[in-house]
Design a protein that fits this description.
- Two copies of one chain form a homodimer.
- Chain A is α+β, with helices and mostly antiparallel strands.
- Chain A has helices at about 5-20, 25-35, 40-50, 70-80, 85-100, 105-120, 170-185, 190-195, 210-225, 245-255, 260-265, 320-340, and strands at about 55-60, 65, 125, 135-145, 145-155, 160-165, 230-235, 275-280, 290-300, 305-315.
- In chain A, helix 2 crosses helix 3 and helix 6 runs antiparallel to helix 12 (about 320-340).
- Chain A starts with a helix and ends with a helix.
- The structure holds a DNA duplex.
Chain lengths: ~350, ~350
DNA sequence: GTTAGCACTCAAAGCCTTCAAGTGCTAACT
DNA sequence: AGTTAGCACTTGAAGGCTTTGAGTGCTAAC
């Protein structure tokens, strides 16, 4: 059912005001602030209709109205006026990124930091493991008789966290040879393609099948491992918001947020093409702490998925600000990283 | 001034009880639980003497007594009975470590996790950057014309987070040659010695002085960089303790604990030979959140400093348990890592 | 469809009383 | 001199009471 224009407008004001003040919104305050042309009684009629429709709730009969999760959803998709950042804020974003632009790890940390600073909410970042990028070549560095570090060079980064076992009787020359064979085999393919290579079907291993199997195994472990790639910033900022005046809520929030794999799940985006993704309330998402919303954005540069970033906060979140920050951070981040 | 045996005993009971219950300790409860041979009036006299001496305080005239920071210090150094872990707990420690023993990163995480689980306090871990270990050799991996990854092999680990710039006109053969020259130069020295090498005094650079300078520069940056090596676990566990019923205290605590460089400072041990280090209360340590204590332990294996681990909690901390856990974790950790 | 007016509801704040835990002190006892 | 029974005194915590005011819903008139 479609809402009348006036209902939409009123609902928007209610959400706006509630986000700003955290105080249930009354008919009187609405007429005073935004609707001086109609009376509070009329607004009351509209409010009770909106309550009937499930967009508003009352804590008790004689309190003002509070938006429901439905209302926030409508607000974000339809009602909200898109915010713009101040030039000061934009300059801040650029400044931080330019200082750190040469190190991907630092960029990820900076991103979460900027987002948290500008929004006043805890922020999270997750760098993608598999961004669809193509592998250029692969290198082994044998640091023990039976162990080697695998260095993988891709289109735009260097992976160096995988280790394989090497047969002790294999000579360094043989390992170098294996390096060449595998480099040829992998070059131009992405991770998914490589992990799906069937050893049985290949006959050009030149005797290095065991090394091949070890590398694939290491890669698979690497792809699955979660943790470690989650970065959080400003967890303590959640306490700035009045809904977290209750210890149980803080407890609940922190227990989710300190568990890296739960945070991981929050960030795994549902839609591939959606840039900004808003999850409001707990509906369906087990990992989200009660009464929380999560707004995430996935950034890409040169067609490669860099990672997903976002904020976690109370349902009563400043969506205007958060969306504006995520969009602008994304723009700067992508423009900087595209140049690399 | 030395306390009488009875005063010591009474003080010990007060601290014991207060740690256990978090309720101010009364003369009556002391006689009932521990001192059935003397009357509560006598205990009251002793308590007020102990208060006079600065070991106890009262919240108000008609409340029981609470230990002061001084009392906790005396308790830890003199009064406390050393706790032993149950075999169940010991088995738990061994089990976790044996599962992860092959990966140093995982060992660090496991360590903080075990400590936090067993003590119910947030725990922190910091792996040492410079453990005094000797460098074996050094390797360059050039992944771009003008950039190379520096891999450093030491007695017992692999460092691979440093990058240097390479002159574009340098051939791969020259870089390999530089690798050999520098490996020879560094081999058998520790980080400190290397960083102190004076380029002017060396004449066997064979033309690779620029590479040498870049490597030293990268190493120095690496040694200084903090963050990233701090691991935390169980931040949310602080809320289990009744002193954190107040939002301001939580705020205060979290703001310290979410800042990695503050946590870093907490863990930089003051004495070199002290294994277990107890910092009680805020006295002198700016980084410690108000009314908190920090207990840390530094672990070594084969003479190499592995890192520092510890817990952060309220002053009213279960020091018996914490010290016992840290000692036992240390034993297991060191025995496992010595075998590597 | 809008609005003035009024009765009704309900949480929050302030105030008062009661309650019980605990101390300090004095005087008597060993 | 050290110990102890006894009692007055203090004080926060808890519960109950009233007051206050913000806000609604409904009705009747416009």
């Amino acid at each position: 059912m479609e809402l009348s224009d006036r209902k939409k407008k009123i609902l928007q004001f209610v959400v706006d005001d509630y986000i700003e003040t955290a105080v249930p919104v009354s008919s009187k305050s609405l007429t005073e602030k935004h609707l001086s042309n109609i009376s509070s009684a009329t607004v009351r009629n509209e409010l009770s209709a909106l309550e009937e429709l499930g967009y508003l709730t009352q804590l008790h009969t004689s309190s003002g109205r509070v938006p429901s999760a439905e209302a926030y959803k409508l607000y974000v998709s339809d009602l909200m006026v898109k915010d713009k950042l101040s030039t000061k804020e934009l300059d801040y974003i650029k400044k931080i990124f330019l200082e750190k632009a040469d190190n991907l790890e630092e960029v990820i940390k900076s991103t979460t930091k900027i987002i948290s600073e500008l929004t006043s909410y805890p922020s999270v970042g997750l760098k993608s493991k598999d961004s669809g990028e193509k592998i250029e070549n692969i290198k082994f560095f044998r640091f023990k008789k039976d162990q080697a570090l695998v260095i993988i060079v891709t289109e735009y980064r260097l992976l160096k966290d995988n280790y394989i076992n090497v047969p002790e009787n294999m000579t360094d020359e043989q390992l170098q040879d294996a390096e060449k064979v595998l480099s040829n085999m992998f070059s131009g393919k992405n991770f998914e393609e490589i992990c799906n290579l069937k050893p049985e079907l290949q006959d050009d291993f030149m005797g290095y099948k065991n090394i091949f199997v070890n590398v694939i195994e290491a890669l698979k472990v690497y792809m699955q491992a979660n943790e470690g790639d989650v970065v959080m910033e400003g967890e303590d900022k959640i306490l700035r918001h009045p809904e977290y005046a209750d210890i149980n809520k803080i407890q609940n929030f922190l227990s989710v947020v300190t568990s890296k794999d739960k945070v991981m799940n929050l960030l795994t985006e549902d839609g591939k093409d959606i840039k900004i993704n808003v999850k409001i309330g707990t509906d369906g998402y087990d990992e989200i702490p009660e009464d929380c919303s999560v707004v995430t954005a996935t950034y890409t540069a040169n067609g490669n998925k860099l990672g997903t970033y976002g904020v976690i906060g109370p349902i009563r979140m400043d969506y205007q600000k958060v969306v504006a920050v995520l969009e602008n951070v994304g723009k700067v981040l992508e423009s900087i990283l595209s140049k690399r």
